Amino acid sequence: MRICVLADELSRSEFLQKGIPENIEVIWADTLKILYSVSDVDVFFDLLFNMDGERIDRLNRLKEKPVFINAVNDTLKGSLTSFIRINAWPTMLKRDLTELAVHEPSQDKIISAIFKKLGWKYQLVPDIPGMITPRIIAMIVNEAYYALEQKVSTKDEIDIAMKLGTNYPLGPFEWSEKIGLKNIYSLLRKLSLTEERYLPADLMREETENESPVEE
């Protein structure tokens, strides 16, 4: 099986940490142009996906082959129905179990065949914004920011308390740093449009806006 993967240095490293069987040929693309130009490939992975109309149109031209997109926040509606969502937020891809979401149940057969060849485990999750794990972690990080706003403790102390008290592998602020606060904030903003409990803490908003502009 030949696969083409569009990735940056971090996502490529995490992809490789999952382990690639010797009989799998991986073609690495660092630009969209390379991804689109590759032929005779069985599967495509766009780990740098964003909701850009031209990008989606071009990826749709590849739909004769399975196309996995790193779309944690966006569901498979409209022009994305032929794709397969993969949770490739930083730190998520290298986990033993990969979260995926599909628009059509029939796509599960395609995924099963691909992941069997890769030797990877996966779990189909609902096609909702944030999937499952990102939603949970985003809420944990948000609650930590609310606690910080209320001066309950410091970032370091909250991280230590959560790791010792709940056996989390990372504290909420450590998680936010590795995942990217912008990713977490963007997801919370989207979820809060329909559920107020996801409303981001003001301090998170301030830190995110100081970091870089947030895309809607």
Q: Could you describe the 3D structure shown?
A:
Strands 2-1-3-4-5-6-7 form a seven-stranded mixed beta sheet. Strand 1, helix 1 and strand 2 form a beta-alpha-beta unit. Helix 5 packs across helix 7 and helix 5 crosses helix 8. The protein folds into two domains: 123 residues, Rossmann fold (3-Layer(aba) Sandwich), CATH 3.40.50.720; 79 residues, N-(1-d-carboxylethyl)-l-norvaline Dehydrogenase, domain 2 (Orthogonal Bundle), CATH 1.10.1040.50. The protein is an alpha/beta fold. It has nine helices and seven strands. The protein is globular.
Q: Keywords, please?
A:
N-(1-d-carboxylethyl)-l-norvaline Dehydrogenase, domain 2; globular; seven-stranded mixed beta sheet; alpha/beta; Rossmann fold; 44% helix; single chain; 2 domains; 216 residues; 13% strand
List the helices and strands and how they pair.
Elements: E1 2-6, H1 9-17, E2 25-29, H2 32-37, E3 43-46, H3 53-60, E4 67-69, E5 84-86, E6 97-101, H4 107-118, E7 121-124, H5 133-149, H6 155-166, H7 172-179, H8 181-192, H9 202-211
Parallel strand pairs: 1-2, 1-3, 3-4, 4-5, 6-7
Antiparallel strand pairs: 5-6
